[in-house]
Amino acid sequence: MRRFAAKPVVHGVAVAASSTLLLLSAQAQEFEINSTRADSTQELQTSAPRGSMSLTYQYQEAEDLTGEGYVIDSARITTHLIDFAVSYRIKDRWTIEAGLPFISREWKGGPSHNPLGIVPPQYDSEFVDDGHFHGFFQDLRLGASYLLVTDPVIVEPYLEYGIPASDYPFFAASAVGRNLQTLEVGSTFAYRPPFLPWYFSMRTGYVLVDSVLGVDTDAMRVTADAVRFFSDRIALNLFVTAKNGGGITPSQTNDRTSELWYRHDQMIRHNYTNMGVGVDWAINERSVMNFTILRMVHAEDIFKLREALSVSFSRPF
Question: Where in the chain does DSSP place strands (E)?
Answer without folding.
Answer: 21-25, 30-34, 51-67, 70-72, 77-89, 94-107, 134-137, 139-146, 153-164, 182-191, 198-209, 219-229, 234-245, 271-282, 288-300, 302-316
